[in-house]
Amino acid sequence: MISVFFGPALAFILTIVGVLALRYAWADSARGRLPVFAGWSMLVLALPGWTAVAALDKAVALTMLAPSLVAFPVIAAGVEYKRAGPPRRPRRDAAELTAEFGRTRRLVSRTILAGPVAALAASALGMAVCLRAPMGEADRLILGGFLVPLAWAVFAGWALADTRVGRVLTILGLVTAGGGAGMFL
Predict the structure, then answer these.
(1) What is the pLDDT of residue 79?
(2) pTM of the shown model
(3) Exposed e or buried b for every residue in 60-97, given b needs 16+ CB within 10 A?
(4) Among residues 116, 111, 124, which one has the least CA distance to residue 175?
(5) By C-alpha distance, which of 115, 124, 126 is closest to 160?
């Protein structure tokens, strides 16, 4: 009965010390690796304390949850508040406004390419595999189902990483058209 109280209390204390050590190391990277190692070690050593009140699977979840509950107040204590009120904005000339519009346009186009356009291309590719791959029906469905999120992630990552938006749009359009043609041929 004593370990049911002292185990979690010790685990919580180890969690607090671990989070504070990690915060200490994060504040200044010149402090070396010892605070980082000590912080993570304390968090790992807290696991046996949580097993006193829960099974191992729930203790692992508590070990993962407890640092975030401790870290929120630690991070909130370091937040700096600025004065209220709207910030003063300097006057901008036409060149700055044009450059900002260009950045916004690229951001919106990349978001559209990485989101719905990449999803459409991945779905067309997955549907073509589901309908036309040379294998059994169950295998085609499983392969097509697993292919869609994987292809979407690859297409979205590529759309965000490539510097030429037109090239991304062209290739994703060709993939979509090829997948659509594969579905109906």
Answers:
(1) 66
(2) 0.48
(3) eebbeebbeebbeeeeeeeeeeeeeeeeeeeeeeeeee
(4) 124
(5) 115
